[in-house]
Structures are given as C-alpha cells and as structure tokens.
Amino acid sequence: MPMPSESSEPRSCVLQPSELHSSVHDPSLGAVNFLNEIMQRHPKAISFAPGAPYPVFLESLDVQGYLDVFAQRLKAQRSFSSAQVQRLLHQYGPSKGLINDLVAELLLNDEELAVGADSIVITVGCQEAMMLVLRALRSGPNDQLAVVTPCYVGLIGAARLVDFDLVAIDESDDGLDLPQLERACRDARASGKRIKAVYVAPDHSNPSGTHMPEHARVALLALAAEHDFLVIEDSTYRFTSAGPSPTALIKSLDREHRVILLGTFAKTCTPGARVGYVVADQPIGTGRDPARILADELASLKTMVTVNTSPLCQALIGGMLVVHNCSIKRLATEKVRRYQGNLDRLLAALDEHLGDFPQVSWNRPSGGFFVRVRLPIPVDEALVARSAEEFGVLWTPMSHFHINGTMNYELRLSCSYLAEDQIDEGVRRLSRFLRAVVSPVREGVACDE
Amino acid sequence: MPMPSESSEPRSCVLQPSELHSSVHDPSLGAVNFLNEIMQRHPKAISFAPGAPYPVFLESLDVQGYLDVFAQRLKAQRSFSSAQVQRLLHQYGPSKGLINDLVAELLLNDEELAVGADSIVITVGCQEAMMLVLRALRSGPNDQLAVVTPCYVGLIGAARLVDFDLVAIDESDDGLDLPQLERACRDARASGKRIKAVYVAPDHSNPSGTHMPEHARVALLALAAEHDFLVIEDSTYRFTSAGPSPTALIKSLDREHRVILLGTFAKTCTPGARVGYVVADQPIGTGRDPARILADELASLKTMVTVNTSPLCQALIGGMLVVHNCSIKRLATEKVRRYQGNLDRLLAALDEHLGDFPQVSWNRPSGGFFVRVRLPIPVDEALVARSAEEFGVLWTPMSHFHINGTMNYELRLSCSYLAEDQIDEGVRRLSRFLRAVVSPVREGVACDE
User: Fold this and answer.
1) Are B306 and A10 an interchain contact pair (Cβ–Cβ within 8 Å)?
2) Distance (Å, rounded) from C-alpha A108 to C-alpha A246?
C-alpha cells in the first residue's frame, strides 16, 4: 500500500500482491472457480468439466417437503412443538451439528461402520471438513501432508490456506505408490520433518477415477502404523460403486483410529445445501479430559470459520435421510444408475470415436464421475480455450490437479453433468478437436498455435 | 502419536495436544461454544449470555414463501424457467455469491453507499468473512492486526486460526484509543513489523455496546492513511441504531478504499441461513489485470474454505430483501423496536435493582444487544457457573473478549434473546447473586468459595 500523495486529493490505497498471503496467488485457488465458471463463458459448448450432479435430479427437489419430514421427526421423537422446530431451524446451533445421529446411522446402515454421533462434525460441504482437518493437524513448519497425485484441487487449496507443506505421492493402478510414500516418510524424518497425514480418495478418485483394492487399503494402514501418520479418507464418489459388496472403507478396516473419514451430501442429495461431514474419533491425550477426541477440536475450530453449518440446510439433508431410512444406497439408487450409465456411455463413445486414434489413450474406471485421457501434447488452459471456442467442447486440464503446475499431458472428462446424447455429441467434438491438434505434431508438422 | 506396541493387539493412536495447531488450544475458540451451549447445561436459568436474535421473530419465518419470491424475481427479471430456478438454488454456484446485487442495492438504500456488486462476496455468516479477510491480509509473521479490546471473540479466533499476531488497543468512550493505536503503529515499524489492519465494530460493539462518533471515525481514517493500514469495519449491530440520521459508516467516509466492510443477515433475517457479506473494493496492484480487487481474491480463497455459500440460503435471504425493497431499515423495523425496548428495559431494571449498590457499575449504550457491568471482584467461568447453579441467571465473563485472558472484572449482559418479563426477573436474580458474592469481599470477610 503506497503512502498517500502530498496533494489534498484522496488517493486510493492499492494492495500489492506481496502484501497478501501466498495462498491467494496459488494457481490451485483459481481452479475450482475455473471449473464452475468456464461454462458461463461458453454457454453453447458441451462441457465435460464440472463434477457437478446431473441437473435434472435437482429440478424436482421439494425443500419444504423434506423440512416437514425433519420437523415431524423432531415432534415425534423429541416432542418438539412447531415453535421449537422453527427455533431449531433458524437460530444458532451447536458447531458440531444437528444431524450427527442420522449420519452415524447412515454409516452403520450402508458401511457397517459403528461410530459415535459425537465423533462426527457436520460441515459446510466436504471442503470445510478438509480445511478444518488440515488446520488442526498442521502444528508447525516441519509437518508435511502427503497427497495422492493427481489430487482433488480443493484439498491442495485447503493445504495452501494453512501453509501445509505438501509432498506429492504418485497415484498407481491400485491407488497409491506405497513404496514412494514409505521413502517420503523416511526422507521426512531424516530431514527433521514428518509426514503427519496422507490424503487419499480410494473410491473412484477425482480426477482419475482410480479405485484402491482392499489389499492396498490394508497395506496403507500398516504403513500408517509403522510410520505413525493419519489417513484422510475422502469418500465423495464412493456411492457410485455399484454391486452388492464394494471394497471396505479404509475407516472400516482401521482398528487404531488412524483414519479421518470425509463425506459429502453434495453429490447424493444436493450441492445447494452445502452439507458434508467428518468422522474424527482420534483420542486426544490431554489427561485433563480423557473423553476428548479430534472431532471436539474440529468443532471448536469450526466456530471460527463458519460458527455452525446452516441448521436449515442440515434439516433439508436430514429430511432426505429420514425419507430414505438413513441409507445413501436407497436414497441414491436412481442416481447411481444414471452415473454408471453415463460412465459406460462415455467409455463406449471414446471407443467408438477415438478407438482408431492411438495417439490418445484413457483409463477405464469402474465408478465415479471421471475418466482421464492422455495426449501426446502438453495440455494447458489455452488448449481448453481453443477446444471450447473452435470445437464447442469443454474439459479440465489435469495440471489443475498437480501440486507444482508442471507441464502435463492429460485432461479430465467428467460425465456426471451431461445427458447421454450430449455425451455422444461431446465425444464426437472432442475427437474432431484432438485429431486437429494432435495429428500435426505426430506427423512432425509444426502446430500453428 | 505413540508408535504401536510390539504386541499384535491393535493400539489406538492418540494425538498429543502438541501435535495440533496452536489455535486449537486457544481459549477463545471455546468461548463461542460456551455462549451457545451454556444454556443447555442450565435450561431453567435466565440467560443474558447469547447475542442471538429474539426467538419469537424466528417462529413464523416462511422459508418456502421467501424462496418463491426469489424465484419470481428470477423469472420476471431474467426470464428463468422453473427448472432453471431449481438448478440455481440446488447446484454449485459462483463463489462470490448470488445475491450481491441485492446487497449492493441495500447498502445504497440504507447507507447511501455506492459499491459495485462485484466488490461484494457473500459468505457463510460474518464469521467466514472475517476468516477470509484475515487469511488474505496476513502475508507473514511481521504482519500485525490491531483489535479494539474487548473484542468480538470470533474475530480473535479467526486471527488465531491464521496465526495473525494480535495487538490489543483499548476501547475508549468514543470507540478506540487512537493515541495508543498510533504508538502501536510506530512500535511495530520500529521492530520491523507492521500494523496491517485495525478491526473495529463502531456501532454498538459486541461486547461493550460502545458507539464511535463521527469525529472519531474521521480521525481513524486519517490515521489509517498516515500509517498505511486498512480498517476492518464490522457493522453487525448497526441496524439497531434508531433515529433518522445515524452516524455514517466508516466505509461511507472512506475515499481511499481503506475500509473493508463486514455485514451479516443473522441478526436481521435469521442466523439459520448463515449468510453474511464482505465489501472489499481495494484495488490489487498486479499490473496484469488492473480491474482485480480484493473481493476477487477473497472469493478465490473462499473456494478453499466452503466453495460457495449455500444458494438455497442466499435465495431465502434474497427473498426477504426483495419483499422489503432491499432495505434492512424496512425489514427490521419491528426488530429494532424490540431490541431498543429490551435495552431500555435492561438499563431500567439495573437502575431499579442495583442502583443502590455502588460496588457494581455499568455503561449505558444507545443501541446494540449488550451492556457491560463492572464488579469489584474477578469474573471467571467459575463465577458464571455459581451464578447459574445457585441463582438461576447466566451471563458472559468479559475475559472471553480479551486477547490474553488476564484477570478481568467485567461481565457482559445481552438483552436480545429475552422477553421483557425475563429481563426484569433476570436482573432481580443478578442483583441477588451480586449482593451475595460482592458484599463479603467489600466488607473484608473471606468469600466462602
């Protein structure tokens, strides 16, 4: 901020970028906005960018109906009057949340995971849960956070916000390069640092769609015990796992309270409520209060971030859970069918339109919203812009999901937001685009960009 | 976290307090929970603790009605279909917010303050606005934040969360001890540090009810220009100012973009929506994009804290604003009457029941929710507990609002949450309590606690 001039004319104070926290300048911070807003710049393009729910599911959501269900439950179970219900929905409330018991029941019903309601904090989406956990765990500059890479951009941003030193661990076919993680733990110790926690999204990760099999989950827990770190398990896309017996949550395999579980209702219920949760049953060794657990500390921190999650929004989600007997499997049956169908359609369209074009390859996730596509040329935001402007198709450069924004050759396709015919047409356009930008390079002709 | 034992029996990982960020242990973090939850421990006590709205106002709030109003506006002004409205309310949205134009109109209508909608970020309550502003402004360990003391506990906590070094500036009768602030600026510079910003709540502050007259606002702005700091102006209780010509917002007197204005709809509309805002029109001197302002950076940071404020909650507040022609003065007329009446009643009851007891004194705010009472004995949480258990009356120890939790002789009474007869009965109980705990000490007899 320059000092004001000598003249009597008032002069605007100007903030220099160096006067702001480093996280403000981190490219990852702009990426979520990029994902949310890029479609607005190209309204006619078919967009494989947003990991947002299929919009048709949101059109018939009856807010008042679900609020009424939640109110009825309070009246029946806790003998609330209508006035008391209104006060609960509209007044301040406990920072831990109002629907913790319903979330605990859901985890028991769907996952056979028994956790106390008091080990849950209801958060403003999964994002706030990430931010709170990272804030609590980063005690000083020697703490490091290992993250599977490519990594959900919101996790990277939350780490930047609290100055958490990040260590990238490559994703492997079974989720995480464990030998690399083990080396990182040893390297950290050798330099006086410590890997405090490892972030993974083992069920059809964003952005790769990678799924971690049970043996890898068990091995990760063993490594956590050996090198004394916590596992932050993001379960956002877990609900899309079809079939009767999905791989167990890492949290379900955990006997040492090493896993902090993150969840969200954005994809299964509605993003508009901004309701997520964290299960943090780690005991705190204070001595003064043996019953204190990490969830208590996260709730305290939460009072300084958002005070409490909107009770109105919690009641909406609570009503949806009650209607579906506290089971996301029941609640999201139709949605899972849609997303599995979209993913199958996307893979089939890639086969159809790009199967004869070996310069481009992609993975074949069994669930989730995302497919990763590899090109022989660097992928950046300029390439997205050309794809949108000239070919009417949008997607996300994978560089957004890497810590150090180095050159990257991949892009992410999301299939959740589109109808089936849009997926077909979108891949048709993508094919035209890729053949236009990739072929000349392969044939040794300079690209005209 | 201790290493696991040699036995094959799994052993729980235990987090040591030293492994968590220092803010977790800060006493200020527990204080808001204390305020929210203390009543639950003593349900029959009359509570002067919460700064929460009068609950009767919340009992008749028609959520669906206001959502419908907001929907109608979208249909009329932007030709939205019903499906488009539903998508806007339930899908992800821009991190800056959905109702920025309505908030800009409100500031113009009520304050004659002209700010662009793009300089506003809609936040999850005023708390998130505080947290985002402090995160952005704290660029390193040499940055200091000056805060009026006693200070709203949520501001202190947000500062702890981002490791912002705090400098306490005493509150004075006209709001802030400016000579002390000026010395603090010079001291900071002399030690290689810098006061980056000053937090004030000039309109009937929480916890003191102090009001800053216009000459003090002008003097603060002059000091800000001289010593190159920003002013963070918290307007939470401003709406309670009765009368036709309230003191101008500091932001309205600001010609240099030195003021960041914080506001909330929790007290005027409903706390349950968790909707607040920040006006941050400070230009950023990047060169690369001359139009970039601080609000853009705050919105980027917000994507890493809560992504976006619930569009559903924004639509509820938006509907309330539309119904009342974007004027909090119109929207809150009845509420202002109630809170002014409650404050008058509280002061009259103190006069009646404690006017003959000179050991205890209090201030006489002209607005807001709070009165500060001074005792001749230290005031701590043990004293609150005794007051609640033995005398059935609750209040907040002023030590919660001081940075360094030193011994304090004051308590805060809030009048917003109570009906008039509760105020009378509460002060009667308070009088009995104070005469029981204060008199023996005054007479030289050892207190039996």
Assistant:
1) no
2) 15
| CA A180 centroid distance within chain | 23
pLDDT score of A3: 46
pLDDT band at B381 (very low <50, low <70, confident <90, very high): confident
Half-sphere exposure of B55 (CA within 13 A, CB side): 15
> In the sheet that A194-200 helps form, which strands lie side by side, from edge to edge?
A120-123, A276-279, A259-264, A230-234, A194-200, A143-149, A165-170
Element (H, E) at A413: strand A410-414
What residues form DSSP beta bridges with A168? A147
Q: Collect the ranges in chain A with pLDDT lower than 70.
A: 1-10, 29-37, 242-244, 286-290, 405, 440-449
Domains, in order of start, for chain B: 17-57+333-442 (3.90.1150.10), 63-330 (3.40.640.10)
Helix (H, G, I), strand (E, B) or coil at B231: strand
Residue B303: its chain A contacts at CB < 8 A? Answer: 29, 32-33, 127, 154, 157
Closest CA to B274 of A212, A95, A346: A95
β-strand pairing of A259-264 with A276-279: antiparallel
Q: What's the pTM?
A: 0.94
* Region label for A325, one of left (φ > 0), alpha (ψ between -120 and 50) or beta (otherwise): left
Q: Are B152 and B401 in contact (CB under 8 A)?
A: yes
Residues of B in contact with A91 (CB under 8 A): 52-53, 55, 58, 271-272
* pLDDT tops 70 at residue B268: yes
Q: Are B137 and B230 in contact (CB under 8 A)?
A: yes
Sign of CA dihedral B33, B39, B42, B46: positive
CA distances from A233 to A111, A139, A200, A217, A251 (A): 14, 20, 5, 10, 8
pLDDT digits (tens, 9 = 90+) for A285-329: 866 555 789 999 999 999 999 999 999 999 999 999 999 999 999
